[in-house]
């Protein structure tokens, strides 16, 4: 589970570019759409960079054009955009197909919704339990 910088690092490892946003996402009231379920969560965010959409590219980019160089997918998994910001459609989360990994750009531990992001920690726990065993 990559959160915030972890999301951006996984994006880079997936061969996606990161870029400076025209206006960063700041505050505890950022709406995020889960493209798998259609549900909207209110999230806490504090970032000025984003991961480029694999299909649409850099959305809401800064006029300076500041971005990382094009990269190579280091893990070979297909990457699917799972979450997008409801205001500007920028990427807010990724799923790695066939890998026990996912990312979110926002801070689910901040609980602004107040518990909108709680299912993400359940998903993470299920991944850990299924990958290395668990049950505690």
Radius of gyration, in angstroms, nearest whole number: 15 Å
Side by side, the strands of the main sheet go: 1-6-5-4-2-3
Query: Remind me, CATH topology?
Result: Rossmann fold
At CATH's second level, what is the architecture?
3-Layer(aba) Sandwich
Helical segment count: 2
Mean pLDDT: 91
Helix content: 10-25%
Which percent band covers the strand fraction?
Answer: 25-35%
Number of strands: 6
Q: How many strands, what sense, and barrel or not for the largest sheet?
A: 6 strands, mixed
What is the number of domains?
Answer: 1
Order of helices and strands: EHEEEEEH
What does this molecule look like?
The protein is built from two helices and six strands; from the N terminus they run βαβββββα. The mean pLDDT is 91. A hairpin with a 5-residue loop joins strand 5 (91-96) and strand 6 (102-104). The chain has a six-stranded mixed β-sheet, with helices on one face. It has 136 residues and is of the alpha+beta class. The protein has one domain (2-132): Class I glutamine amidotransferase (GATase) domain (Rossmann fold, 3-Layer(aba) Sandwich), CATH 3.40.50. The longest helix is centred in the last third of the chain and has 15 residues, at 118-132.
In short:
The chain is α+β, with helices and mostly antiparallel strands. The chain is built from 2 helices and 6 strands. It has one domain: Class I glutamine amidotransferase (GATase) domain (Rossmann fold, 3-Layer(aba) Sandwich), CATH 3.40.50.880.
